[in-house]
Structures are given as C-alpha cells and as structure tokens.
Specification:
The protein has one domain: Rossmann fold. A seven-stranded mixed sheet has the order 1-3-4-2-5-6-7, with helices on both faces. Helix content is about 35%, strand content about 20%. It is built from six helices and seven strands. By secondary structure, it is α/β, with parallel strands linked by helices. Helix 5 links the parallel strand 6 and strand 7.
Length: about 230
Amino acid sequence: MSAATEFSDAEIEAGRRLFAGEWSFLSAAGSLASLPPARTLEVAFAGRSNVGKSSLINALTGRRSLARTSNTPGRTQELIFFGGPHRMMLVDLPGYGYAAAAKSKVAAWTRLIHAYLNGRATLARVYVLIDARHGLKAVDEIILDTLGQAAVSYEIVLTKSDQVTAAKLAECRRTTLDSIHNRPAAFPDIVATSAHTGDGIPTLRAAIGRLIREREHIAGRGSDPGRRVPSCR
C-alpha cells in the first residue's frame, strides 16, 4: 500500500486560507453551450448519486448551504460552479449512476459530465468521491476510464468515513488503491473524509492548495495553466 501523502503545518494552514473567506454560487450549466468561460483553474467533484459531493463542498468552504444537499439521489442536475476569494472555481458535477429521474434525463447528465471531462482545458483535477461504506463500483470505473482517456488527473476521496470502523476504512482504502494502481491518470493516494465530523477536511484542503500552487508555478513558467499533465507518482 502506498504511504499517505503528508502535509506540513504550513501547507495545512495554506489550505485553510485557500478556502477561508466568502464563497458564492457563480453559475449552473445544463449543457456545454452554457458553461462559463474557461478563464481560471477548476477543481471538480464527481461521484455516484448521494455520495456526498455537496456536503463535502460545504465542509471545505465552511459554509452550511453553499451547495444544496438532498437525500434524494439525482438532485444536482447541472454542473454547478462556485467561486471564492482565490482565483479558482469549484465544480459540483451531477451524480452518476442511480438517480430518481427519467432514464433519458440521466443519460443527458452522463453525456454532459463526460463531455465536460474530455474538453475542459482549465480543469486541474477531478476528485472522485467514493462512499467508504461501499467502495469502488462498476459505475465508478466508467468515469475513471473517461478520465484516463482524457488524461485528466484525478484523486479518490472516500466520504462518510465516520460511518465505518477503522478496519473497514483501511480495507476500503487498500482495495481502492489496488484498483487504481495501473491507471496513469490516478493520483496514487486517497483522502478519507467525513463532512459530518470534519475528519480529513484539512488534509483535502492542503492537497488542493498544493495542486493549485503547482499549476500556478507551471503557468508562471509560460505554460498553459490548464494543460493536461500526468499525475505525479
């Protein structure tokens, strides 16, 4: 099993500052034509319906209702963009898999997600959320395939870690790491989080902060900040 990425106290604090301040809803896109201009780095959150994407975004930003949460799978039906004090956008993607909606509507969301993942040059990384109670499923593998084909860097985030035992969480982390071992676009680490208890939230903030600094450094050298680059191993 790979060792977990470690962050210094300074990086944890930088992550806290990155998400501190005022965050707000920017726009909602139900089609590629309605996407906002790709002018700044974006960090997206993907996952099965009801995996906890909105709750995680609220926990990261310290806001109770920035992203709408619901117990009804499929509530988020568009790509939702949020902006904060830093030059970065957070993107809440529609949940894939089961959704309480017509199959034609679900198919449309799925096409939109895949088109966005394939064509958004400013997309820095996708955090793929996996429910720690259930682990990686076949429907998740489809998204991982899309991300790999598009050379989009992604990292797995386990959600609802407070709802499983420490042994179950360790097993879920191990099997998930094994599953992504041969996927070049996958960042070789996993962050376990709980939006309810706050566990793992400082670590995830620090990870995103490090990512943004690395991409800004690339931009400072004259490269395209949205250029797709392989994940570091």
